[in-house]
Amino acid sequence: MSKEIGRLLTAMVTPFKADGSVDYDAAEKLAVMLVNDGSDGVVVAGTTGESPTLSDAEKVELVRTVKAAIPGHAVVAGTGSNNTHHSVELSKLAMKAGADALLAVVPYYNKPPQDGMYEHFKAISEVGPTIMYNIQGRTAVNMTAATTLRCAHLPGIIGVKEASGDLDQVGLVCAGKPSRFKVWSGDDSWTLPLLAVGGYGVICVVSHIAGKSMARLIDAYVKAENDVARDIHLALLPVIKSLMTTAANPVPIKSLLNAMGFAAGPFRLPLVPLTDEQLKSVQKTVSEAGEYITFAKRGVKVA
């Protein structure tokens, strides 16, 4: 039986040193900060972690480093690609390094048919517990509810990160899935709507700066404290939208972390930081969220 992964996972940025190398010490510190602020665990080497620019060796070392820093908390490794063989081999290395589960995106660019998606995830899930990741905005193809449910019956598939933007599709998955299969939101702003149709949690970006608030939102929903959950959702919604629309993720959140006092470092090309004007706009929105931004409680500045 696979480890309990948790409802709130932060899709962690990858800190870099000034020379562009991975800052593993900063990654340790960030992981500890995140779980202390409410995250059940983290995802390393995902999109938010600039996975397209990381080498396999860097991804594996991130898993090893972060797992050692937060024992007892889940570490999910981003190992998916559009090459099934490569994904399988990287997944083996990640599991050996201590990953509790794997996050594998629907293959991008080569636009596989639904049967191809099934075979892809089947192969990866034979290596370790696997969370599929459906995000048509980055892959160009949507994994249908029927395919998701077909995969859900594979013993190694433990859930899906859903970022299709289609609540009906998510509802159909929740209606037809086996009880052990979990559905995490892949869009922070869809966390509450997804919970309402039977989802489990969120793989989150805003939890870098509002972890306790997102954890409270989920807990409030589970306890039927609907007004509390709604209030948190509405308070954080402008922040979430700002982080997702000012520039492509992870540019806003990493730029913001640097501005707030955590040395997340530079980006690897082709990503570049926010402009000064964009950063000021994001900081203003974050400042207006007030007490919901729990990162500020650590003694660093919001704006």
Report the major sheet: 8 strands, parallel, barrel
Order of helices and strands: EHEHEHEHEHHEHEHEHHHH
Shape: globular
Strands of the widest sheet, in order across it, are 1-2-3-4-5-6-7-8
Please count the beta strands (DSSP E, at least 2 residues each).
Answer: 8
CATH fold-level name: TIM Barrel
Please give a structural write-up.
- This protein is an alpha/beta fold and 303 residues long.
- Helices cover 46% and strands 12% of the residues.
- The chain is built from twelve helices and eight strands.
- The protein has an eight-stranded parallel beta barrel with strand order 1-2-3-4-5-6-7-8, surrounded by seven helices.
- Helix 8 links the parallel strand 7 and strand 8 (201-204).
- It is globular and about 45 Å long.
- Residues 297-303 have low confidence and may be disordered.
Question: What distinguishing features does this structure have?
Answer:
303 residues; alpha/beta; TIM Barrel; eight-stranded parallel beta barrel; 8 strands; 46% helix; 12% strand; globular; disordered C terminus
